[in-house]
Amino acid sequence: MALSTPWPYPRWVAHRGAGKLAPENTLAAFKLGAAHGYRMFECDAKLSADGVVFLMHDATLGRTTSGHGIGGAQPWSALAQLDAGGWHSRSYAGEPLPTLENIARFCLANGHLLNIEIKPTPGVERETGEEVAREAARLWQGAAVPPLLTSFQVESLKGAQAVQPELPRGLLLDTLWNGWLEAAQQLGCVAIVCNHALWNAAVVAQVHGAGLRALSYTVNDEWAAQRLIDLGTDGIITDRVDLFSPAG
């Protein structure tokens, strides 16, 4: 997926479904993001104790569910019973944690695209990358556009690369640590996904010169979005599905 190859993903990506307007990483959030016209979504994926790929950002359950403790330490049968919406607002009380399969079915049925951030429970980085990639390949088999797999964890991307090398990958960065571009190239990445403040003309040129795309998270201000557009970056992940038109 070199720069000479058409990039199959839209510029605008809805963060965790619909940003902060609905409970993150739930089907309700995806439906709300879609109602605002978004056709690509970002989500976080990790493993239950019995190997089910499900959506949640934090390692612990307390912030976004009715549960307690480490999510990845519990079987899916327990996680499936949790309320993942009531923390956000009463109108979403009872919203369940979705599996990646739940979200895949919604996206595929509606022609939506997905950026799956591999968000492993600490200690199972490679295993999570492997299993997310296997599940993504199974669910999107035959789809015109596969999901984009991204992670801050190099081991997770190595796992994904090892088991499903054909799925596109991106390296997430919150700092430009020493050797980041070489690592992305060794991982066969097609994109660098940076904290938006890290991009400048030189870094964009470096990434594009290596044949990779330049994406940004999490962009919620108009001035920041315009700066990234002016720099010639390729994708913007935002919470503000109510502010930015995905057609822009």
Q: pLDDT below 50 for ≥5 consecutive residues: which ranges?
A: none
E-strand count? 9
Largest sheet: number of strands, sense, barrel closure: 9 strands, mixed
The 3D shape can be described as globular
The Cα radius of gyration reads 17 Å
The largest sheet has its strands arranged as 1-9-8-7-6-5-4-2-3
Distance between the termini: 23 Å
Mean pLDDT: 97
Secondary-structure element string = EHEEHHEHEHEHEHEHE
- Tally of individual helices: 8
- Class of secondary structure makeup: alpha/beta
Structure description:
- This protein has 248 residues and is α/β, with parallel strands linked by helices.
- It has helices at residues 27-35, 76-79, 100-110, 125-139, 154-163, 180-186, 201-209, 222-231, and strands spanning 12-14, 40-47, 53-55, 113-118, 148-151, 169-173, 191-195, 213-217, 235-238.
- Strands 1-9-8-7-6-5-4-2-3 form a nine-stranded mixed β-sheet.
- Helix 4 packs across helix 5.
- The longest helix has 15 residues, at 125-139.
- The two termini are 23 Å apart.
- The mean pLDDT is 97.
